[in-house]
What does this fold into?
Amino acid sequence: MEVILLTACVTGNNILYRPIGAYQVAWYLRQFDYEVQVIDFLHRASDEVIFSILDRYITQETKIIGYGAMLGLKDPEAREFLNKIERILRRTKKKYPWLTTVAGGAAAADLNRLYRNKSLFDVIFFGHAEDTMLALANNLIRNGPGVQFEKLEGNRIIRESFVMPHSEKFNIESNSHAWHDRDFIQPGETLPIELGRGCIFKCKFCQYPYIGKNKKDFNRCMKHVKHEMLRNYEKWGVTNYYMLDDTFNADEERVEAFANMVKTLPFKLYYATYLRLDLIAAHPQTEDMLLESGLLGAYFGIETLNPEASVLIGKSWNGKHARNYLPELYHNKWKKDVGLRAGFICGIPPETFQECQETNQWCIDNEIPNWYWHPLYINRNNYSEFISEFDKNSEKYGFEWYVDNGVVLWKTAVCNERLAWSWKHRLMQQANPYQKNAQWNLLELGNYGIDMHDAKNKLRKDLDWSKINFKRNVFLQNYFNQLLS
It folds into this structure.
């Protein structure tokens, strides 16, 4: 095996789903005849199992071992997992000193800051890594041209924007991604699928670098999407998906094209995705299109119901209309057929903790099936690819900075970063008894043969979690056994 990619999506509720980044890079490298193995679900395997798997795949031909970081490092569980990754890579590099260790993913800038001066990673990728990883592989494995690096914190950085020394360049629109037999897809597993990249909006808090695009740009050709779905169905019986479009309903014409494509599939499709509530309200014909195309789980980034706070972040519609339209859509239009989750952010000025509590009560009173609170996050490391408008111009929007135990944190007249985390935990304690199964959590249950339509109408606390966790463990054991076989 020439390249090995490690990955895991670490969450606080044990949910199992595959981050697509490592698999996408692996697929792309295979188009150029590289031998690549992805090793997933590392957070649910012991060090001993992981070492056994690595010892099976690493040979003298292996030149690169990479880690795709899909985690928020302010989460204690994520930090604990990062310690595990550090143990794995240090042991592996000691045993196989010829390996080049690389990292990428959403948390790449955080890894660069934490592990300075090449203390863990030889190379860190910023941004999408199809072309940059190919360039590095060409250099290290096939003695191709050198790669253009940037030095940050003593580390070697390769940015997505660098000019690569090969003629082809990855294009999401013609992406024909296919899962490999060595990905060890489990029968009927819910899989992630990429329909496009980028978002047409530019929310002030959003650190995603690919925002403000035209709605017609960077979307996969629908025939490639159909081909991938048909192949997955024929090989593994896959009928359920996590749609990873940043705003699935950004273009109403594409929603219609997707719905028409789904009608031609030989199976009933179900999926969860990210949606904008204001766009559904603006294009009410998409209410039925989404439902008919298989929408079963949805995430709406409401962020705040405070009118002033919603204007500040660039989502003024939510502050004016979400209170009325979201319950109308869920109860009357969709007849509770969609397990939806509303996302909220605590700490956006001038919203107070009392107002956040009132939002909790609004969700309870309106029987919103699921909602989640996130603390506002602002990053002062402006060298990252993931920089929001708040990051770049925090003072302009009323944020100041203070130092707490050696850490620089944001503050406003009504909140600060540590307080926002405290608010989040208190708000979720109030909300948890009312949570039903929604979005990714709901579609994951399909992995274990659980009736998702029945599960979405049940409170999470009323499910038989001992049975679900047993089936999760069977799923994992099958996957790891196949890796070792």
Notes: The radius of gyration is 22 Å. DSSP finds 17 helices and 15 strands in the chain. The mean pLDDT is 91.
